[in-house]
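look at this one:
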Amino acid sequence: MKTSVPLLAALLQVPLLALAQSPSSLSETVVTATRVPQPRSELVADVSIVDRETIERSGAVGVADVLARLPGVEITRNGGVGNTTSVFLRGADTRFTAVYVDGVRVDSQSTGGATWESIPLAQIDRIEVLRGPAAAVYGSDAIGGVIQLFTRRGEGAATPYVGFGFGSKGLRTSQAGVSGSAGAFDYSIGAAYQENAGFDVRTPSVANHDPDKDYYHASSANVRLGYQINAQHRIDATVLESETNSGYDNYGYNPKQPVNDRNLYHLRTAGLSWSAQWTEAYSTKLSVTDSNSRYETTPSAYITQTQLRNYLFQNEYRLGASLFTAALERREDKLFNPALDSFSTTIFRKRSQDALALGYGFNQGAHSLQLNVRHDNDSEFGGKTTGSAAYGYSFAQNWRATASAGTAFRAPTLYQRFSEYGNAALQPETSLNAEIGLRFADAATAGSIVAYRNRVRNLITFDNDSTACSSGFGCYANTARAVLRGVTLAGSHHIGDVTLRGSLDFQDPKDAETDKLLALRSRRHATLGADWRVAGWTLGAEVQASGFRYAEAANKKTLGGYTLFNLSASTEIVRDVTLLARVDNLGDKNYQLVDGYATPGRAVYVGVKWQPH
């Protein structure tokens, strides 16, 4: 049996939580499920919300570390924060999650998927995670789901804040900003810096191991502005900038003498939107967004840069209990990979996708219905139509049953099509998902159970035997299929000043061709937590557990399961000044998320933040 005893104990405790939302959050408004604001209590989709308080109490430095505590989410990282990071939603590959920052799409046309290591957690105020395909709303990429991150929005009197933190391995963090509103104008401005002396991100088992410390530092800034022209019209603008510098040992050129390389990430997102309420029933939103994601390594020379520009014209019309939506959207992708050595060629390619998306929502009494259909026309491979249907029925007080089905796709990256390993004949990866759910919520308890099955076809892999490109080492090809199926349980329960929360995932993400488990994904993982408010303190305890996973597709090498214990405490030490102390991996568990890459071990963090109430 490869599952640890602590993990088994954790699995047995999850059902005691009454089956991941808290009761008090049911009235929250969610945007990500349908691209239209709607009360969480009316959602048919499977959604998690993370607010600013939760982010701050987590003591986390990276966005992925916050996501890893949510239902249906696993992460991998090549060492410490700032190194290559992947997020698996319901077992789907990281490229199968559409990622937005303030409505701006973030993606890489080289590797595929967002560069999670470049998104600054210090600038994020709220996270919404939609589990399940959403291509009928968002287009390409949303096979596993959608994750949208929001920066702070100004409101009320001017509220400044300043924060500092110190932690293990030389971790130092600092942040400052101000947000508020004045008349029709609202604003939020923030900046942050963090650095860490690092640790050796490679394990001693790696041949010719170089036991150096791979340090990192990162800086970020964000500006979000809004202007309420009148009761019917509003303009919003947002800009985020982030730079990350992290270290790793590159064994690619000479395994006997690794190079101490640096990862250099630069991310910039910008968006401008105009929202208009033309009548009580009809409203529109027109937006233009742009993201630029650049990755460079030095002294080993490599550069890749992706620009993604998006135009969206969203229409909403309410008629009684019905909501009709129609959207016109255009997405433009550009990839620039300059040739920096004699082994590679310069890539400068672009493409576009034009889409029409239609939606219908109905919510009345015990019934909720959501229908969506979308057609994307890609300049490279032509048209793709996706659709989804979801239904929710409140069959008894506090109880609701849901069922949904949907199709999705991801277009091949420009690198997969036009690099020296590229194959211009590649077709989009496609999926068909079906799921059912049951939810319960009252004043003290909330819980859910969701069962899903997602079949993915035309998976793009690297085929060593393919001759479809100019490379003599193989090419990208549509060679595989996968089945992602599982059950997610999540819930919370309030007992006086104590809040219990937890989630448990049983999943079986497999390669349908070989019947082997997909690499780096476990069959079960869980998070259990308790928060206790006492004498002005908030005390927290948490357990994160995961079963074993395989290091590679052949399922020959196993990465052991692990159980981590985390503790936290926070209090207002003087007026407007909050102290946070946190210990992650209390038992200093030695485990790996990726073969050959170490994790940081026990981590201690202490921070203070001044923010007038």
